[in-house]
């Protein structure tokens, strides 16, 4: 059963929503359909929540998404880009629209204490065992998109054209979109005229959505730096070349890139997230490793930051008369730019559907999203945000003086019974508006 908020939305939309220029009967409305199909949709969500898989390990998840799309009537190709899923549904002449959901979980042990919490364990890339959970809401993404795909497949009189639904692997490591594109996503299948995705937010109440036109998410790069030296006894440092001292000096030096080389009005982040070196109190090691995350918005700023990091690292090594450091850049994701015209159209539609007060303008984020890569291929894209925490819960967090658990937190728990109906509804009406007969 839907909770009271979702039931109210069903009534409101059944009475007042106008789509495609014609008033739609409640039986055809997405929320009415969701209420009718709720048992199967909630079972799908709970299955995905309980059974997350890490990036590029989404074997069972992708098989389930492929099965769901095939059952809805899509022509399904699987795998594309290792574990990617592509479903194509042709419905006469009209535009081609791509809808994307991401499928991977995170190496986080869930601590929400709900009955359906993930107990999954997997082997991480470093060979260690880790708990796995959908701490970034990809279970909500998948269920919303599958629900919209099922609704659209069963209501083909409301739209015309070619609908492409993809389940994408490895968003969390910035590799999935690249893998699918390299495996022919835009050449083996019809090239989309536009592409749309949704993403959960933990600070927007259920029933509301967030919109950000233009630059929305950042370039993301991971940088691994190894400072090399000459090990020896900690009591005789004069006979060594200490890489830990080099690493310490580099951490401080890196902070001057943003503070002294970048204008205060330009978004830029250089964060050292990890340092690993040494094994014992009195042993100076041969090397010390640093792991950085680097964020920016423009290609020019991205290059400046990466060049400056390499320059600083080499300068520290040269000052210590040490070998040149090893510098590796990986997991790069380009900045996400929401097409202004497309985003304005979607924002207006969502305001008409949910109410203007339910469409929140959200600021650009320094987080990353590889949905951006489809935009880099010349396709107008829009990723909107879906509220996933009830207002009552948000009020309780505020009263307690703490924020709601953030994405990637072991305690992030969406109120799926309220969030999913709106996710399915909004994605459905966006596609129908973009594919008007």
Going by helix content, strand content and strand pairing, the class is alpha+beta
Number of strands: 20
Q: Any idea what the shape is?
A: elongated
Q: Radius of gyration over alpha carbons?
A: 24 Å
Q: Level of helix content?
A: 25-40%
Please list the strands of the largest sheet in the order they lie side by side: 3-4-8-5-9-20-10-19
Which residues sit in consecutive blocks of at least 5 with pLDDT less than 50? 4-27
On the 0 to 100 scale, the average pLDDT is 94
Beta-strand share of residues: 25-35%
The description of the largest β-sheet is:
8 strands, mixed
The first-to-last residue Cα distance is 33 Å
Number of helices: 11
Structural description of this entry:
The chain is α+β, with helices and mostly antiparallel strands. 37% of the residues lie in helices and 26% in strands. It contains 11 helices and 20 strands. It has an 8-stranded mixed β-sheet, sandwiched between helices. The chain has a 4-stranded antiparallel β-sheet with strand order 14-16-12-17, covered by helices on one side. A hairpin with a 5-residue loop joins β6 and β7 (129-131). α3 packs parallel to α4 and α8 (340-354) crosses α11 (416-434). The radius of gyration is 24 Å and the shape is elongated. The two termini are 33 Å apart. The relative contact order is 0.18. Residues 4-27 have low confidence and may be disordered.
